[in-house]
Amino acid sequence: MTQHLAAPAAPTSGTHTGWWRDAVIYQVYPRSFADGNGDGMGDLEGVRSRLPYLKDLGVDAVWLSPFYASPQADAGYDVADYRAIDPMFGTLLDADALIRDAHELGLRIIVDLVPNHSSDQHEWFKRALREGPGSPLRARYHFRPGKGENGELPPNDWESIFGGPAWTRTGDGEWYLHLFAPEQPDFNWDNPAVADEFRSILRFWLDMGVDGFRVDVAHGLVKAEGLPDLGGTDQVKLLGNDVMPFFDQDGVHEIYRSWRTILDEYPDERIAVAEAWTPTVERTANYVRPDELHQAFNFQYLGTHWDAAELRAVIDSSLAAMRPVDAPATWVLSNHDVTRHATRFANPAGLGTQLRTAGDRELGLRRARAATLLMLALPGSAYIYQGEELGLPDVTDLPDEVRQDPSFFRAAGQDGYRDGCRVPIPWTVEGSSYGFGSGGSWLPQPDSWGGLSVEAQTGDPGSTLELYRSALAVRREHPGLGAGTAVEWLESPEGVLAFRRDGFVCTANTTGAVVRIPLPGRTLLASETVMIVDDMAELPADTTVWWAV
Q1: Per annotation, catalytic residue among 216, 389, 405, 542
Q2: Gene3D superfamilies from the xrefs (predicted)?
């Protein structure tokens, strides 16, 4: 269904331009944020009811994971209709009301866009199957004859990110490409009809009033000519580490130049953000050249261990890569696809970003709090994943029978433990779903959730929630924080990061022991209690401190 609604006005920022250069953007995973109708599944009505909380938290924009009409084979990243809301989340009128309310609160709205693939229930794909080989609709996807004497082998050796071959054979003998689940056939972006359709989709949502798009699998739209074999197996291990014929092809950039032209036609600085897994941060910078997208996720930073030397190296390389293209660096610690950082940091380094062990909860939370203050002190834009402001750990002990991550049910590919970071977040100390909604929760919540809820932490000066609120308030008010292109590194003991910005110093002790340093200035905020003796500051283990100088 297509419904035209008058676009609500975006937040104004006076003479300030480039709001995305220092924005703090909060990711909402709608099915797990708040349930407005009591069916156990989060929805747009629930998100709308909690917008005042996000305003009070101090974020600038809200990024919504997919809410489009979808069979939900991959939690909405299999889109059947890009101009309709899935009934489990609401209606277009609900989306319109959410956008209007957000703008009245001074919040911007960014929506997920999924251009690499559709659902197998998309009308184009259903017609392609019905019409058979030679159908013009098949040219909008990657249909190919198979190899082997009778076409019984896939057209090439590409593997799905979710495990198994990246090809599925149809009843008429042809194969179609899906880099993710078989229910997610890849679009063929060499076909002009695909490009035309997505330009129309962009305009539809811009006319609705959204302030930007997070572009899912931005690196995957264009495939190497001829779809050449990659060679070898365990191809998912190469993701983000090596050149691949189906990812990060140079042809994607022409698509994003076209999109930038559309974005620039609209008032109030509409933006697009690339989810681009690339081998190097320099390759990532290609997506944010002045005539392309505005931001790109910094996955190199997300995957960095809690180690001073490693963090400094990725901070330096990130800032250096963005500087020539005049784009802001972005910083992120958690999202809906990786284990929450409070749990990653609770485990030994080197285990990757999808973990199934709880680790040392106290250690993980202490490091997570310190890592957050470090991230928010860096120049550029920062992303917060829902619930991290509560210090939520991953739920690592979900029973197999309740899991819904599609890759969990495959023999290879990703570990399939993303459900642990998608458990609905707690709002109240008590209740059947700790305030998530009146009808339970689509994934079971731990008994500890009440003590970690918004209600339990509000007003407690030592809570993680109040640390986030304070940090975002200081970041917003201090002239030395937010946008920027560089930091000045200061001499510091081994295992300690120390850098200066205008009127501001950040020190982060990544070691497991107390470290004494000369007092940098007046304490603004600390992730743990800091002792000051004479002219020396005693930094506790795994602690970040902000100083005014």
Answers
A1: 216
A2: Glycosidases, Oligo-1,6-glucosidase, Domain 2
Q: What angle do CA 217, 386, 248 make, to 5 degrees?
A: 15
Looking at residue 400, its pLDDT comes to: 83
User: Which structure tokens are listed for 121?
Assistant: 């229930």
d(CA 505, CA 405): 42
Last residue of a domain, one of 425, 446, 471: 471
pTM: 0.95
Q: Which of 523, 486, 530 is nearest to 378 (CA)?
A: 486
- 97: tokens are 């009301």
Q: Are 547 and 389 in contact (CB under 8 A)?
A: no
Neighbouring CB atoms inside 10 A of 494's CB total 9
Concerning whether 216 is annotated as a catalytic residue, the answer is yes
How far CA 380 is from CA of 76, 145, 326, 485, 537, in Å, comes to 30, 47, 11, 7, 28
Question: Within this chain, do residues 101 and 156 fall inside the same structural domain, yes or no?
Answer: no
- pLDDT tens for 189-238 read 999 999 999 999 999 999 999 999 999 999 999 999 999 999 888 777 76
Q: What distance in Å separates the CA atoms of residue 276 and residue 248, rounded to the nearest whole number?
A: 8
The predicted pLDDT at position 485 comes to: 96
Q: What CATH number does the domain containing 512 carry?
A: 2.60.40.1180
d(CA 388, CA 394) in angstroms, rounded, equals 10
Contact predicate 69/81, CB 8 Å: yes
Residues 466 and 517 in one domain: no
- pLDDT, one tens digit per residue, over 122-169 is 999 999 999 999 999 999 999 999 999 999 999 999 999 988 899 999
* Bridging pattern class, strands 536-539 and 515-518: antiparallel
Q: H or E element: which one contains 548?
A: strand 543-548
Closest alpha carbon to 507 in 152, 201, 225, 495: 495
Q: Does residue 480 form part of some domain? A: no
What is the SS3 assignment for 533? Answer: strand
Q: How far apart are CA 179 and CA 158, in angstroms?
A: 8
The rounded distance, in Å, linking the Cα atoms of 421 and 423 is: 6
| Number of domains observed in the structure of the chain | 3
- Give the DSSP letter of residue 228: -
308 near 495, Cβ under 8 Å? yes
User: Would you mind telling me the total number of residues written for the chain in this entry?
Assistant: 549
- At 413, list the tokens: 């590919």
Distance CA 543, CA 523 (A): 13
Res 403: pLDDT: 82
Whether the predicted pLDDT of 410 surpasses 90: no
β partners of residue 506: 499, 546
Residue 244 gets which letter from DSSP? B
Residue 9: the pLDDT is 61
- DSSP single-letter state for residue 498: E
Q: Which of 123, 229, 254, 265 is catalytic?
A: 265
Instruction: For residue 61, tell me if it sits in a domain.
Output: yes
Q: Which domain holds residue 61?
A: 24-115+192-471
> Do 65 and 153 belong together in one domain?
no
